[in-house]
Amino acid sequence: MSNSISPSPRTRGNRKRNFGLVASQFNAKYVEGLINHCSDELRALSPRCTIALHHVPGAFEIPIVVRELAAGRKKDAIIALGVILEGHTPHAENLGRVVTDALQRVALECGVPVIHAVLSLKNTEQARERCLEGRINRGTEAARAAVKIADVISELRTK
Question: Which of 11, 109, 139, 144 has its CA 20 to 30 A from that of 42?
Answer without folding.
Answer: 109
